[in-house]
Amino acid sequence: MSESSKAPCFPLPPTDSNPFIINNSSASVTLNNASRNFTTSRQSPPPAIGKKRKNDNESNPGDFRSNNYPFIRTTSSIGKRYRNEYTSQQTLKSLLVSLEKDQLIEMFEMLTDRHPHLRPELFSLIPRPTLKSVQIAFETLEKKYQEAFPYSKEGPSTDAYAFTRVRPFLLEAKGAIIQFAEHFIQTESQAPALVIEYLHIATHFVHRLPQWDQPSHNQFKLDLYEKLIEYWIEFIKYLGEQIECGKIFGQSLVSQWASHLDEHNNITNGCFQNPINEFKQHLGWIIGIDSRR
């Protein structure tokens, strides 16, 4: 067979057009494009413009400051408030300790003037005076007026200048004596031995007050004697009323009271004769003293 007879009866397509033959260059481009598209589809989308930033509590759910744990915030605020109150109390206490007695009295007077409803509560909180506290108060007052004397090599002077220096503390002592007497006579009347003992202590305190050069300056001391004598007479009469109502007082106790009065009468050169007369009239018979003597 000739070569012409071996030729196909229909024309064959060109080699490059065969669909079963892959072109390497075109395949590479196709695969690269597909890979690029696949990679791009798996990346995170870009953040939206204008979207607000999440709160720290949302971005960190394990943070204990989160609103999911309100009890922690409450506990912290309570502890802070307690510390503030404790510090305030400590500061108030330290300030009160540093104040003088006169400053404390003035402060409480201003407080009760502005808030009158606090008076009953303050009165209920103040400790009641006792004989021991009274003695301490008198010792403090005595020390204060003695220190007020102007310095002198010859000892305390009793002239007009010294009286001017000491007078404020004498007025303070007078107020304390009267206030204590009112308290014991009004509130401790059911304990007559306590009242008599206070009057005995207060009278001795007046005995120790200075004697001044000018007679007019000594009137202060005489006024205190007169006030104390009134208290003695008032309470002796009260004891007489109690006896009439059936109250009984022992001889040893009544004898001790009589001894106190006699002592004060001797120191004052007879100034306590009126209280002694009242005592004889109402209580003298208990210890065998005739009221007519």
Automatic annotation (TrEMBL):
GO terms for molecular function: proteasome binding. It is found in: Cytoplasm; Nucleus. Involved in ubiquitin-mediated protein degradation. Regulatory factor in the ubiquitin/proteasome pathway that controls the turnover of proteasome substrates. Targets proteasomes to the nucleus and facilitates the degradation of nuclear proteins. InterPro entries: Cut8/Sts1_fam, Cut8/Sts1_sf. The keyword Nucleus applies. Keywords: Cytoplasm, Nucleus, Protein transport, Transport. GO terms for biological process: nuclear protein quality control by the ubiquitin-proteasome system; proteasome localization; protein transport. It comes from Conidiobolus coronatus (strain ATCC 28846 / CBS 209.66 / NRRL 28638) (Delacroixia coronata). It holds the Pfam family Cut8. Belongs to the cut8/STS1 family. Binds the proteasome. This is Tethering factor for nuclear proteasome STS1. Gene3D superfamilies: Tethering factor for nuclear proteasome Cut8/Sts1 (1.20.58.1590). GO terms for cellular component: cytoplasm; nuclear membrane. Residues 36-69 are annotated as: Disordered. It comes from the Eukaryota.
